[in-house]
C-alpha cells in the first residue's frame, strides 16, 4: 500500500492560480470562525493551504468540506456560508474577472 500523497505546497498552489491569470491573495482564520450566508458581485476561486473549512453553497445539496489542496469555485452572486475547522484555516483566494 502506498502512503498518501502530501498536500501541495502553498507556493505550488499560488503558482498554479497565477498561471491561470488570477491575482492571488492569502487569508486565514482561527479555529471555528463562522462566515454567515453572503455573496459577492464577482466570481471567486478558493484553495485550502492548511486546515479545514466547510462551505454551504446555496443550490448545492449538502456541504463542501475542504482540506489542503481542495478548490472551490463560486460564480458571482452565489450565496454561501462557511465554518472553519478546529485547527483554523489558511486559504488562497482569487477574484475571477468577468468574461469579456
Features:
globular; six-stranded antiparallel beta sheet; 100 residues; mainly beta
Account of the protein in words:
The protein has 100 residues and is mostly beta strands. Strands 1, 2, 3, 4, 5 and 6 form a 6-stranded antiparallel beta sheet that branches. The protein has 1 helix and 6 strands.
- Topology as H/E string? HEEEEEE
Radius of gyration: 14 Å
- Strand residue content: over 45%
Could you list the spans in which at least 5 consecutive residues all have pLDDT below 50? none
CA distance, first residue to last residue: 48 Å
Largest sheet geometry: 6 strands, antiparallel
Mean pLDDT across residues:
92
Classification by helices and strands: mainly beta
Oligomer: single chain
C-alpha geometry: globular
How many β-strands, per DSSP? 6
- Helix coverage percent of residues? 10-25%
Tally of alpha and pi helices: 1
A few lines on this structure:
The chain is mainly beta and 100 residues long. Helix content is 10%, strand content 51%.
What secondary-structure arrangement, pairings included, does this model have?
Blueprint: H1 10-19, E1 24-29, E2 34-38, E3 43-57, E4 63-66, E5 71-74, E6 80-96
Antiparallel strand pairs: 1-6, 2-6, 3-4, 3-5, 3-6
Amino acid at each position: 500500500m502506498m502512503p498518501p500523497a502530501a498536500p501541495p505546497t502553498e507556493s505550488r498552489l499560488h503558482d498554479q492560480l497565477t498561471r491561470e491569470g488570477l491575482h492571488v491573495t492569502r487569508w486565514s482564520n482561527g479555529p471555528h470562525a463562522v462566515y454567515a450566508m453572503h455573496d459577492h458581485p464577482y466570481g471567486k476561486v478558493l484553495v485550502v493551504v492548511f486546515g479545514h473549512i466547510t462551505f454551504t453553497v446555496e443550490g448545492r445539496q449538502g456541504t463542501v468540506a475542504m482540506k489542503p489542496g481542495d478548490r472551490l469555485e463560486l460564480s458571482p452572486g452565489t450565496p454561501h456560508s462557511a465554518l472553519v475547522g478546529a485547527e483554523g484555516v489558511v486559504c488562497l483566494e482569487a477574484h475571477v474577472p468577468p468574461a469579456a
